[in-house]
Amino acid sequence: MTETEMEYKVDSVVPQFYYNYPLCQYHEMAVSKVPELRYTEEEYDFARELYKNINKNDLMIPEDSELLPTGFIPFNLEKKGWQNCTDAANMTYFCPTIHCQGLGRVTKSPGHHWNVTAVSGSSLGETAGIYAYKTLAQLGYDALTNPEIVEKCWEAHRTMNIPRYKEWI
Which of 37, 54, 119, 140 could make an S-S bridge to 70, C-beta 3.0–4.6 Å? Predict the structure, then answer.
């Protein structure tokens, strides 16, 4: 219509997240060695309130076991349903990395929603975070006591077709 032309340059991108499958599998094994996550009744009450605020048309609040996950989203080779919009993806270009998701998020909560912030700033988020740290500490212990874990994870990282970091900037 106006024959206007425009030039532009992309100065930033959201990089691909390169999952280290052996590390993800070893993390799952580490999770099984840590006592299960337990929330208090007060934390479940808070989660129910958040659920009601988010899902105003849904009068059926799920049972506690469905309302708050007590485990990580299972490892999945096909990466179905995984979204990546995080700076953590940058690190995957340099070393074996995992991405733990699932804990401390009320069922049917949209990502990047105010209730995720509310959970993070409460004892509910602290409980989930401490549990996650315990699983990572167990993974670290396993890697220190079994050098084969480190070797397999680095080998997997080296064999992935990861572009040089500066090529996609």
Answer: 37
